[in-house]
Amino acid sequence: MTGTLITVTPTGAENSKAAVPALPVTIDELVATAKECEALGAAIIHVHIRDDAAEPTLDRGRLRDTVAALRQSTGLIIQLSSEGVVTDSESDRLAVLDAGPEMASCTMGTVNVGDGVFTNRWEFIVDLHGRMQEKSIVGEYEIFDLGQLTSLQRLLDKHGLPFGGHVHVDLVMGVPGGMPGTAEALTACHRAIRDLPDGTTFSATGIGRTTIPVMLASLSAGGHLRVGLADTITYAKGQPVESNMQLVARAVGFAQLAQRPPLTTAEARELLGVPAR
Fold first, then answer.
1. Are 206 and 173 in contact (CB under 8 A)?
2. Is there a contact between 151 and 108 (Cβ–Cβ < 8 Å)?
3. CA nearest neighbour of 75 among 114, 32, 43, 116
4. Is residue 239 a contact partner of residue 25, using CB atoms and an 8 Å limit?
5. What angle (nearest 5°) sits at the alpha carbon of residue 120, between those of residues 186 and 206?
6. pLDDT one-digit tens code per residue, 189-222
7. Radius of gyration of the chain, Cα coordinates, nearest whole angstrom
8. Alpha-carbon distance 222 to 51, whole Å?
9. Counting CB atoms within 10 angstroms of each CB, which of 49, 119, 221, 271 has the fewest?
10. SS3 sequence of the chain
């Protein structure tokens, strides 16, 4: 396929509602955002949820309700984040899969995030990968540093392909403590991806001011895009992001300029091996 897979990550676990009023934190806000982003060209929604106080949570009931609401109101591929926050237990992160998403993320190693550390032990990664296979959940493998692509190769060699048979990675670039959000770093990752199974695809997201350079570099290398308020809250210098739709619209515009228009949700499902509903 020559189109562009666009993922929206509307909330994240880092920004506060008080600092970013446009952040969708209730289920109703998340569903409204999802519908608007789908209409613009997004095919996947990468979901973090918040509690009644707008704080990050992995509450199982709320996760199930969120998945059900998104499934009822949109055709988007629903991808739950298994990251949580640095204080979340491994058992709570694994339990995310019980909410019944179509996809889930799997971060391929430990990474410093500002002053915190996301710990992803090898045993946890293997367990998460295996449970996604068992539950027929398609994995997206999040890469914060070049060496994590080698870890992914090891995982696939030892424990098999993800459910659906297609390997898709997301390059998360520009995180303090991770790889820089530069064309050079993306090129290095692109070369390493060639060592993964044939047909492996990748998306890329640039955190903060690296958003635009990473989008352009990804499109030029045949990659796909992930955008949203989880990753950047500034649209331009001195200009706060007004909504997730604003970021999706910009990504769609860049994809069209690259003559790689957004994939429909049906095309995205075919590409990633996500079953039709």
1. yes
2. yes
3. 43
4. no
5. 25
6. 999 999 999 999 999 999 999 999 999 999 999 9
7. 17
8. 38
9. 119
10. CCCECEEECCCCCCCCCCCCCCCCCCHHHHHHHHHHHHHHCCCEEEECEECCCCCEECCHHHHHHHHHHHHHHCCCEEEECCCCCCCCCHHHHHHHHHHCCCEEEEECCCEEECCEEECCCHHHHHHHHHHHHHCCCEEEEEECCCHHHHHHHHHHHHHCCCCCCCCEEEEEECCCCCCCCCHHHHHHHHHHHCCCCCCCEEEEEECHHHHHHHHHHHHHCCCEEEECCCCCCEEECCEECCCHHHHHHHHHHHHHHCCCCECCHHHHHHHHCCCCC
pLDDT in the model for residue 1: 62
Tokens standing for residue 100: 């019944």
Which residue is associated with the tokens 């770093």? 185
Q: Give CA–CA dist 119/122, Å, rounded.
A: 10
In terms of residues, how long is the chain?
277
Answer for the pair 228, 10: CB distance below 8 angstroms, yes or no: yes
Q: What percent of the chain has pLDDT over 90?
A: 92
